[in-house]
Amino acid sequence: MRSQTCPSCGHEVHEKINNRCPFCGAEMGRAITAAASGGARKNARAALVVASLVLMLAGGLFSYLVAERDVEVVRSEATSETGQTSGSSRVCERNMTVVLDAQEEFMVTNGRYASDATELLDSRSELELSCPMSDKPYEMTIQGDVIRLVCPSHGLSQIR
Which end of the chain is more exposed for a tag (fewer CB within 10 A), N or C? Predict the structure, then answer.
């Protein structure tokens, strides 16, 4: 049997009688249990902190991977629907970016966004307001300070 130290008198006790120290009569069970539970509480807290950190990291990684997958799905669906290469989608994306940049320039100059394609072309005549691959016009939606441009051929959209 293991020996224990009495929390009251400090004697080393080999045998307890009714969970009491044979030298001073102090209870041995509670003091030992209380000391042991303090260490258990610290271990439980540390495990909880580690588990929380692992869950937060896993959640962040999951969110990142889902967002990346969604972007790739949109790009692959746009390419598969039209049967065109991804290079044509990139050309369309660049052209849409130019159109949105022109809208922002119009906003700086006029204090508002151009309400339609004609008004935007009046400010910059070199703009292509349709898909360079299919010549289908972009669908432009303006709601407050948000502009959404959609290419009906590729299914691509850009929002600012």
Answer: N
pLDDT for position 38: 54
Instruction: From 148, 142, 158, 140, select the one nearest 78 (Cα to Cα).
Output: 158
Q: Cβ of 139: how many Cβ atoms within 10 Å?
A: 11
Q: Which of 44, 12, 47 is nearest to 28 (CA)?
A: 12
Q: Provide the domain count of the chain.
A: 2
- 128 Cα distance to chain centroid: 35
- Residue 13's domain comprises 4-62
Closest CA to 50 of 60, 39, 58: 58
User: What are 46's two structure tokens?
Assistant: 């540390």
